[in-house]
């Protein structure tokens, strides 16, 4: 291209040219920082201005332009030097004359906010000697008023209740339910307060009618042809939790001692499904189950025949709905209806012509009413007679079915005093041997249960429970299940501890291993804090995170323990469980609802016995809980 005479002028300024900065990417941040500093050092070394500044700093440090420090003026008064402010000891101290200085006190607290309680403490009222004793609302009736034989039970069953189970007379709800269900085939809704005997209220009519049917068939066939395990499944009992299912099964097995030819079984979550299928193949007459596992067997176990089922019992209906079993119950009812239509039913003498559904609940809520609409048809309501106060309260929408003989109280305790208050109350309760046999402490979560179990049993003997410990003791008879801190040493546990130690070595300083603070099999221990000189107190723990076999063995050990004991647990033990000799219930963490509170305190004051309940509240908003 030809030159057209155009000139270009660039203004570059008087400053020296700066090299282009290089951006380092990739690699570790330490390597990038080292490379960046090396580049800056090379650039500054070639910069004349940086050299001048650096030389000036070196001259100041070397002392070329630095004046020396002047000498101190000599004292002319000849006196001894005494500093105005003493910063430390310069010589030997006379302990006799000089006052001893105390170290500075430093207080550190996790609880920086402690609101004051608005509730004034109430002094205990003196008991009036002439006051009439409170009549228990869930006690058995007098044997002169009602007997089991007058309700329609056979003398053999009534004799078994008296001699083998120690039950002399029915409770109010048992008297009404047995009389209704033995003679009538309609659906029923049983409502009664906790501890009133609802389990026997629906078990007795079922067992009695099966006994009558078996005797009728035996007489018709000349002494043969009675009820056997191959006759079919006639009753299904649904419970919300595994623990309640186990308890119902235990009561049922005890009751079937009067009719040993009736076979009962359980299917619950946490057990081996193959063993349950084997029991179903052999044949059962009464089945106790949880809804989820029963749906599984109805869909995958062909041997489970429900076409002859004549009773469907839903125990703890409110809890079934709270745990989300509504869809499972709908599926169970629909599958049973479908299979009953496919098989042309032949009437069985002594049994209902159609399926009878029984719904049991201690409270009436919208969920329970919805469950009743799903399962019940033209149901009869069965409830014990209520005192006038309870009827008035229900009309006002504040029905509360706590036993009349239960003494309830509450304590307003700041957060930092809760643990020491709990320990003091438990120690005082078990101070005298025999004053309190068993106590249940309810907490909000499994972590809280484990923490308080570890604190209250620190330094005490811990015991292994469950089938794993039994197997280890069979393999190694020299092993002891009691040790001061380490409950049991097994080859499996040694291998686990070795893996944990290698893992902890790799952790950074200050890091804490998460989980595994307490061995799952260790659920029972002696508490040195609560125990007295002549009264050793055992502490148990139970929550939903424990394996099913450990929960079952722990509950059994607590029930069979003859000495003073405490159960620290979550709400997994608050529904339907009949734990004997529970005198005291402590709610360390308040329940989320009034119904949950009702079921918690219902573990004591059962079947007419006395009981106490205490709830811990923190100052402030929680004080309104009692309203």
UniProtKB/TrEMBL annotation:
Keywords for the protein's UniProt record, in alphabetical order: ATP-binding, Helicase, Hydrolase, Nucleotide-binding, RNA-binding, rRNA processing
Please list the residue ranges that the record marks as compositionally biased, kind Acidic residues: 122-132
Tell me where in this chain the Helicase C-terminal domain is found.
478-627
Subcellular compartments:
Nucleus, Nucleolus
Q: Which GO terms describe its molecular function?
A: ATP binding; hydrolase activity; RNA binding; RNA helicase activity
Task: Give the residue interval(s) assigned to the motif Q motif.
Answer: 146-175
Q: Where is the Helicase ATP-binding domain?
A: 179-382
Q: Where is this chain compositionally biased, Basic and acidic residues type? A: 48-60, 74-83, 468-484
Q: Where is the composition biased (Polar residues)?
A: 84-99
UniProt-listed InterPro entries: DEAD/DEAH_box_helicase_dom, Helicase_ATP-bd, Helicase_C-like, P-loop_NTPase, RNA_helicase_DEAD_Q_motif
In the record, biological process GO terms are: rRNA processing
- PROSITE patterns attached to this UniProt entry: HELICASE_ATP_BIND_1 (PS51192), HELICASE_CTER (PS51194), Q_MOTIF (PS51195)
UniProt key word Aminoacyl-tRNA synthetase: no
Enzyme class name: hydrolase
Catalysed reactions listed for this entry: ATP + H2O = ADP + phosphate + H(+)
SMART domains from the entry?
Answer: DEXDc, HELICc
Output the SUPFAM superfamilies linked to this UniProt entry.
P-loop containing nucleoside triphosphate hydrolases (SSF52540)
Ranges for domain DEAD-box RNA helicase Q: 146-175
Q: Where is this region: Disordered?
A: 1-102, 118-140, 464-488
Q: Which family does it belong to?
A: Belongs to the DEAD box helicase family.
Domain-related comment: The Q motif is unique to and characteristic of the DEAD box family of RNA helicases and controls ATP binding and hydrolysis.
Q: What is this protein called?
A: ATP-dependent RNA helicase
């Amino acid at each position: 291209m030809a030159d057209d005479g155009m000139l270009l002028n660039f203004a570059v300024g008087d400053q020296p040219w700066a090299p282009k900065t290089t951006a380092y990417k990739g690699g570790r941040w330490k390597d990038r920082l080292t490379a960046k500093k090396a580049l800056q050092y090379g650039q500054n070394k070639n910069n004349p201005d940086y050299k001048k500044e650096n030389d000036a700093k070196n001259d100041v440090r070397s002392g070329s332009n630095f004046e020396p420090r002047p000498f101190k003026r000599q004292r002319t008064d000849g006196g001894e030097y005494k500093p105005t402010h003493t910063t430390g000891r310069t010589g030997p101290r006379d302990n006799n004359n000089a006052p001893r200085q105390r170290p500075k006190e430093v207080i550190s607290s996790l609880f920086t906010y402690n609101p004051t309680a608005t509730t004034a403490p109430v002094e205990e009222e003196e008991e009036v000697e002439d006051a009439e004793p409170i009549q228990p609302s869930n006690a058995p009736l007098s044997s002169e008023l009602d007997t089991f034989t007058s309700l329609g039970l056979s003398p053999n069953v009534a004799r078994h209740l008296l001699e083998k189970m120690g039950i002399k007379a029915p409770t109010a709800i048992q008297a009404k339910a047995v009389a209704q269900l033995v003679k009538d085939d309609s659906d029923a809704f049983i409502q009664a307060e906790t501890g009133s005997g609802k389990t026997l209220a629906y078990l007795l009519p079922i067992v009695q009618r099966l006994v009558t049917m078996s005797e009728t068939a035996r007489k018709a066939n000349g002494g043969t042809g009675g009820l056997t395990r191959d006759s079919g499944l006639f009753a299904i009992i649904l419970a919300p939790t595994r623990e309640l299912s186990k308890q119902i099964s235990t009561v049922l097995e005890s009751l079937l001692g009067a009719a040993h030819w009736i076979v009962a079984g359980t299917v619950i979550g946490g057990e081996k499904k193959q063993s349950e299928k084997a029991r179903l193949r052999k044949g059962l007459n009464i089945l106790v189950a949880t809804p989820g596992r029963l749906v599984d067997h109805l869909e995958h176990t062909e041997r489970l025949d429900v076409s002859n089922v004549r009773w469907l019992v839903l125990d703890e209906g409110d809890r079934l709905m709270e745990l989300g079993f509504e869809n499972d119950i709908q599926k169970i009812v629909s599958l049973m209806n479908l299979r009953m239509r496919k098989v042309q039913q032949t009437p069985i003498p002594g049994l209902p012509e159609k399926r009878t559904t029984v719904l049991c609940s201690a409270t009436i809520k919208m969920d329970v009413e919805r469950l009743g609409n799903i399962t019940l048809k033209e149901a009869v309501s069965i409830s014990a007679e209520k005192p006038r106060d309870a009827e008035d309260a229900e009309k006002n929408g504040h029905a509360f079915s706590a036993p009349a003989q239960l003494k309830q109280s509450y304590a307003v305790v700041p957060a930092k005093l809760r643990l020491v208050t709990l320990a003091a109350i438990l120690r005082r309760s078990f101070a005298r041997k025999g004053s309190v046999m068993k106590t249940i402490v309810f907490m909000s979560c499994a972590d809280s249960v484990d923490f308080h179990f570890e604190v209250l049993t620190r330094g005490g003997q811990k015991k292994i429970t469950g089938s794993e410990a039994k197997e280890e003791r069979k393999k190694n008879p020299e092993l002891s299940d009691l040790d001061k801190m380490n409950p049991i040493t097994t080859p499996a546990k040694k291998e686990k501890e070795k893996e944990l130690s290698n893992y902890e070595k790799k952790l950074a300083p200050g890091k804490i291993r998460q989980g595994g603070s307490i061995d799952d099999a260790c659920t029972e221990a002696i508490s040195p804090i609560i125990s007295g000189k002549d009264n050793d107190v055992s502490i148990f723990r139970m929550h939903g995170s424990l394996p099913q076999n450990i929960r079952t063995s722990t509950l059994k050990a607590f029930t069979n323990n003859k000495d003073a004991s405490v159960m620290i647990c979550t709400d997994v033990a608050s529904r339907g469980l009949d734990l004997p000799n529970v005198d005291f219930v402590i709610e360390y963490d308040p329940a989320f609802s009034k119904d949950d509170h009702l079921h918690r305190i219902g573990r004591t004051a059962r079947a007419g016995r006395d009981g106490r309940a205490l709830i811990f509240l923190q100052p402030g908003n929680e004080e309104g809980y009692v309203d």
